[in-house]
Amino acid sequence: MEESVVTFNAFHHVAWGTTISVYFWLVGASAGSFVISSFGWVFGIKRYKPLTMTASVTAIIMLLLVPFLLTWDLGKPIRFIYLLIPGYWHSTGPMAWGTMLICLYPMSMIVYSYFVIKQNQTFAKMFGIVAIVLALSTHWYTGVVMELNPGRFLNHTALAPLLFLTGAFISGIGLMNVIVFIRNVLVRAENRFDWALVHEMAQFMMYGIVFDIFLLFLDFMQTTYGNQNEVMGHTVVLMQVFRFPYLWLELVIGLVIPLVILVSPLKNYKLGALVASLLVIIGVYGMRVWWVMGGQYLQSFY
Amino acid sequence: MGNQESQLNQPRSYGLQTPGTKGVQGTKRYAMVIDLRKCIGCMSCSIACKTEYGLPLGVWRTWVKVVDKGSYPTTKRIFMPRLCNHCDYPVCVRNCPTQATYKHEDGFVLQRYNRCIGCRTCMVACPYNARHLLPEKRTDNNLPRMVVDKCTFCIHRVKKGLVPSCVQACVGGARIFGDMNDPQSEVSRLIATETVTVLKPELGTSPTVYYIGSDWEIMDEPHSYSNRTRQVVEEFNDFKRNHKGDAFADIIEGEPLMTEVGKNWIGYLKTIPHKAKETLNAFKIFLFD
Fold it and tell me: What is the ipTM of this complex?
């Protein structure tokens, strides 16, 4: 039996909420889509060239939603400009780096897309490389901005950027699969993308899912064998309060079921790949929810 | 302790942040010692602070945490006044993207409202819950709103030779304030001669609020969460219900989580009209005034 009880304390808010989790999801899906876009022009996999513009436009649209979301999340939206002004910009603040990346990444994608439209292989490849580095960095940053808070035990792990990047990879591919599916249903047969691409992307997604499960297992090990805060972060925050987004949305719906679909004969059906993709997209959002809100949850009563 | 202190005092670069000044000769390092044996839980410090700064409901720069120990008849009620630790290596300063928060050369960790964009990065970074967002509606709208606020160790008083208002108001003399780099000061003497502890020393923030006579059950974060009374849980839930709408991610315990996530999303959307109005006003002032 516990010998003491807290009878009074000040209450505190969880500072970052749903907006940030949606932002993390959007940036991830954008980065993942852009990886697909770059396959044809940057990595020279020619069968992906027809997908380039669809993937690029998806990535740009997803990312253009971000500034609106983030600016209105600020207490003083008009002051977002401070993040860009020398003299205000703080080199040691992770958010300052993120602002630069969020500005540069869509610009590089637009330039890349321009050269793709112009069929200029040299410049498309050059700016494609820049854009792919920025895409990965932008999403790497979302992991880092949560990681660099030593007081938030669930987030303070070097696995964070890797988990985010893997989530981005699978959710981006999932999103592309869904878009390709919808497009193929809507357009005439001669304008359709090759269905084989959907199955191939689903295969890539499967590798990503396996790696994501491995990373989550590592995180599980760390929290289970960790200090008291980490253990409580896992047993109370993740397995009780955030059980739905962590266990059900991410692990079961977002990873295990799609993996089962993708290793079974169901993967040979278009619908199988589509369902797996949809589930992955939903599951990755679950991860963003528990990662952002769960990490801050325990401390709100300290 | 001495070895650890000397290691912590190695110069570090945190951009705008001044280097740690604990124990550095020729510098001032204001600190507070709180003797928990003398604290009677009267909350005078909280009230003095609220009065000094006209703080709105629901936010605190300092507060007193209360824990009841033991079971009848062997019981004890223990208190722990809490405030910003004015860390020597503050995470909030390091992580602020606009240099809105900085460390004063005498050790105060301060906030510049005119630079703060209300991104709440510092609130996420602070391991001590010492920061809060000022609400959108205040009795006097000329006061700072929707920016982050924190304890200043009453620098405006200290610079005039006074002690912080919480120290002034403490009836038990539990709070002692002074320059810990001055060997003649009372805080130096207490830190040197008493067994003192700080909150979360393992995080490397090097806090400058020292506690005498503290108990692990009131200092420990997981313990606090696990050992709340039912009444406290309900009060916390009411607090969350009454403060929806500032884009916070409060989860009311016992409610379906994703419903709460949805409500937070609605709360965020509800903040947009008043923020848009303020943004338009700012444009008007910029263009026409």
Answer: 0.93
